[in-house]
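Can't attach files on this board, so I'm pasting raw text. These are the components:
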Amino acid sequence: MIDLHSHLLHQLDDGPESVEESRECLRILAEFGFDEIIPTPHRFHMLYSATPEDTADRMAEIGSLLVRRFSFEYMYGNDLLESSGDLFELATTPSGWKVLLVEFLPLMSRKSDIEQAIFSLNLKGIAPLIAHIERYTMPDEVWEELKKRYSLYYQISLKTLSHGFFDNKRAQILRLLDAGLIDNAATDLHRLAKLRQIEQGLDLLRRKYPEQVERLFSLSFED
Ligand SMILES: [Fe+2]
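---
Top answer:
Structure tokens for the assembled complex are below.
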């Protein structure tokens, strides 16, 4: 099982403050069943923009066999659209799309804004893996329609799955999983204290969607 979204490298963004906390997070994630963690510090975010050099340094300092490569969680905007050749993709699809983990500003909740962003990324050869899609409170039909028209992938956060039964975002994730529209599930881990929620989300996924678990934690992206 591979996790494609976390902030568990210390002192880079809003993740752990110490190397010890980073190592403890990794130890517990291994107990949950993860055998690879691909850290994705924030890049081009309003508050944080980790560099490849600092990221590689933190990885070396932690020295865990679970962490063998890194990528970034890219904030959508001009910095991303104008960068050339210096992007660290998670994967490349069989027909050559670069798969990047992308987040939008939380206030971007209009269909036209999201569609314009996806269109611009596709023009650059990027197929975004959209992080925590439940955050944007878009109707299910919009996600379904965008998937038919563009190259893109959807990721949900395990933490949201741990929310209460009446939580709208949790309910949306379950509907989208039922419809087979979700490509990836991730921890989006920032701090040790959140591991309990992640464990609860993972338990629910394993109980309710055992047939999807392998695909949701893999690095293979079909065209
Ligand atoms: Fe994140």
